[in-house]
Automatic annotation (TrEMBL):
Keyword field contains Cell cycle: yes
GO MF terms, alphabetically ordered: ATP binding; ATP hydrolysis activity
Highest taxon listed in the record's lineage: Archaea
Protein name per its UniProtKB record: AAA family ATPase
A single Gene Ontology CC term: cytoplasm
Portion of the parent chain present: 529 to 796 of 837
Classification of source organism: Archaea, Methanobacteriati, Methanobacteriota, Thermococci, Thermococcales
Alphabetic keyword roster: ATP-binding, Cell cycle, Cell division, Hydrolase, Nucleotide-binding, Repeat
Coiled coil spans: none
Sequence similarity: Belongs to the AAA ATPase family. CDC48 subfamily.
Keyword Hydrolase annotated: yes
Length: 268
């Protein structure tokens, strides 16, 4: 069923302000993807050719997927996501058909964004690996499809990787993934913004100091911060549960709900 499985078109709901930090990256994506999709006539008139393919690269958990979804949301484009490893493992023999189908759907659903996460899985440099033939064919198929996309057709391909160094150079030629954008690990200022995003709908006690948390979390990625915040919330829940009768908890009594406040200690 793999090749015939319906290509899933999503309409994501991630907005630019759901992404903490990365201000330069967001601005670059706005200009390179959002504007051309929203104002194709203006780009045509000005004679500017927007990029067809963009490669987001950087450490894991820094928001690459989030960025791709936000571009789709903010440009009101359809979103088709595939993962490199999935292409290889599940669609053996049918992968090329699958890739053709994805591009066909994307053209039909334009404006649309094809997001290829972990593209390095289908794109190890040609002639170096065991499954050489399979990846060769996949890469060729992908390149053919990308080359076939007309300028200003409303289809943009965004790929993500932590290993830009192992990609087949053919993918990076002009007209393909010719815009490379680094998505770096967050600095202290960006970490503060990420903490704000993830706690914005959370009942926080006065003693919670997000600046201090940002300072103390050197080396954390956005994904690490999201996990830390989730854990803190669970700690608050545990505290409330252990301090009340099982009945009060079971009924989600007012007393119980009132105790659900995340304190500084919950982050430790
Ligand atoms: P991978 O390379 O592992 O696929 P990625 O760079 O695509 O990672 P995401 O999947 O976008 O990372 O991020 C994972 C989760 O981490 C997000 O769903 C979000 O909760 C959180 N996150 C990461 N970066 C940010 C950010 N800049 N702002 C807010 N949340 C973030």
């Amino acid at each position: 069923p793999s090749a015939l499985r319906e290509v899933l078109i999503e309409v994501p709901n991630v907005h630019w302000d759901d992404i903490g930090g990365l201000e330069d990256v967001k601005q670059e994506l706005r200009e390179a993807v959002e504007w051309p999709l929203k104002y194709p006539k203006a780009f045509k008139k000005l004679g500017i050719t927007p990029p067809k393919g963009i490669l987001l690269y950087g450490p894991p958990g820094t928001g690459k997927t989030l960025l791709a979804k936000a571009i789709a949301t903010e440009s009101q484009a359809n979103f088709i996501a595939i993962r490199g490893p999935e292409v290889l493992s599940k669609w053996v023999g049918e992968s090329e058909k699958r890739i053709r189908e994805i591009f066909r759907k994307a053209r039909q659903a334009a404006p649309s964004i094809i997001f290829i996460d972990e593209i390095d899985a289908i794109a190890p440099a040609r002639g170096t690996s065991e499954g050489e033939k399979v990846t060769d064919r996949l890469i060729n198929q992908l390149l053919t499809e990308m080359d076939g996309i007309q300028e200003n057709s409303g289809v943009v391909i965004i790929a993500a990787t932590n290993r830009p160094d192992i990609l087949d150079p053919a993918l990076l030629r002009p007209g393909r993934f010719d815009r490379l954008i680094l998505v770096p690990a967050p600095d202290e200022k960006a970490r503060l913004e990420i903490f704000k995003v993830h706690t914005r709908n959370m009942p926080l006690a006065k003693d919670v100091d997000l600046r201090e948390l940002a300072r103390k979390t050197e080396g954390y990625t956005g994904a690490d911060i999201a996990a830390l915040v989730r854990e803190a919330a669970l700690n608050a829940l545990k505290r409330a549960v252990s301090s009340l009768s099982p009945e009060a908890v079971e009924e989600e009594s007012e007393e119980f709900l009132n105790k659900l406040v995340v304190t500084r200690k919950d982050f430790e």
